[in-house]
Structure formats: structure tokens, C-alpha cells
Amino acid sequence: MAELTKPTAATAAKSSTSVQPKRKGNTISWVAPLVCIISGYLIWRFIIGADGNFLKPDATGGFWPKHEGPKSGFARMYQGGIIVPILIGAFLTVLTFVIERFLTIGKATGNGNIAEFIRKVQYHLANKNVDAAIAECDKQKGSVGNVMKAGLRKYKEMITAELDTEQKVLAIQKEVEEATSLELPMLEKNLVFLSTIASVATLMGLLGTVIGMITSFAALGDSGGGEAAQRLSQGISEALYNTALGIGTSAVSIIMYNIFTTKIDGITYGIDESGFTLTQSFASLYK
Hints:
Elements: H1 9-13, H2 28-48, E1 54-56, E2 68-70, H3 73-76, H4 83-109, H5 114-126, H6 130-140, H7 143-159, H8 165-188, H9 191-222, H10 226-285
């Protein structure tokens, strides 16, 4: 008769998992910037650069009409040059990903307070009521609840499993780690756009300003007199719109990036605490 071998920790670690990968595309990551840049040009060309906003509109039109005599500061932004629509597109990209991250992270946060949710789960586990703890996860509906639910299913399975307590705890810990590895990328996705634009927008604004000032000083060199000095001051003023747009876009990106990372840190802490709760509870109750 063949001798039965006792399951090892390695066997426990290879046990089946209820965690399934989330197959979600990220089409927005390349579509949104392209659409926003095109929208930025359309806003700059047909709204800010509308003929009615200038005393001397360029009737020939085209890709970049040379309008003169802006009637307002809003119309003067058009005179900032071709970098302006790119900066407008960058700002629209920031707004797009801010909305997308708000929706995603808001969903991942779930219902109610995370700390209160973990305390309820701890209470049910202390009373050995695993089903009630799983029901709390269904109510929470966030990333912490998803990770906790995956761990609780393995927790419930390990109660009757023929393994050592250490092996059971390792199996629960592995399940929690696999669930966590699927939740965290979803939280951090697309934040790279905010961090990149925060760094690049200011530099693009400065580039537009430098190009505008080069053009203004070149015009001053070609002419002279008080009229040239006046046109120079107007040109510098228009060029500075690039800097203003760049700094404003960068500021919004930095602020929102920090807000989102703070929210993600709170969710990550809740996930870590949930894993610790499950393993410690099982080790103490099912020795």
C-alpha cells in the first residue's frame, strides 16, 4: 500500500485560488491625449481665434490666421502662438484623467469608512462567523472589500483543510497577496499622465514664451521708433500667456496627483491591515 505523504507548505502555496485577473483595456490612455490636443487646437482656432474677436481678422483663414487687434484679453491669448493650443490640450488631458481617476478611486474606496469596515470584519471573525464577514465585504464594494473577500473565502476553505496551521496561514496570505496584486495596478493606472504633464507643461509654456519673445525682438530689429517699442511690449505680453497656461496646468496636475496618491495610500493601508487581520485571526482561533 502506498504511503500517504503529508501536504507541505509548498503544496499549500500552490492551492487553487479564487482570484481572477481583471481584463480591462486602457484605451483612454492613448485616445484621450490625442482627442484633447485636437480639441485644444479647435478651441484656439475657432473660439479664441474667431474673426469677431479681432479688429483686423485675417480673412484668408487657414491653419494659423494672422489676426491683429485683439478686442479682449481672452482674444489676446490667441496671439501667444502655436504652443497655446498644445497647452490647452494638455490642460484638457489633465481634466480628463482627473475625472477618470476620481471615478475609479471613488469606486475603489467603496462604501463607508475603511477602518470601521475592518473592525466589523474583526468582530465577525472573533465570533467565528465567516459568512457575516463576507457579507460585510459585499456591502463595502471597494478594493479593500475585494481583497478581504478573497482572503475570507480561502480562510473559510482552510478551516476544514487537512494542513498545519502554518500552512493554512500561508495559503490565506498568498490569496491576499494575489488579490492585492490585481487591485493596486488599477488604482495607480494613468497617474503617470498627471505626473508627466506636471513636469512638461511649465517647460512647454516657457518654450512658447521664448519663441514669442524671439519673434517680438526680431520685429523690433526690423523697424524702429515708438511704434516698434509698443509692438514689442504687446508681443511680450502675448508670449507670457504661454507661461501662464503652462504654470496653471502644471499646478493643477501636481495638486490632483498628490490628492490621488494620498487616497491610494489610504486604500493600500486598508488592504495591508485586512491581510494582517485575516492571518492573525486564523492563527489565534484555529491553532
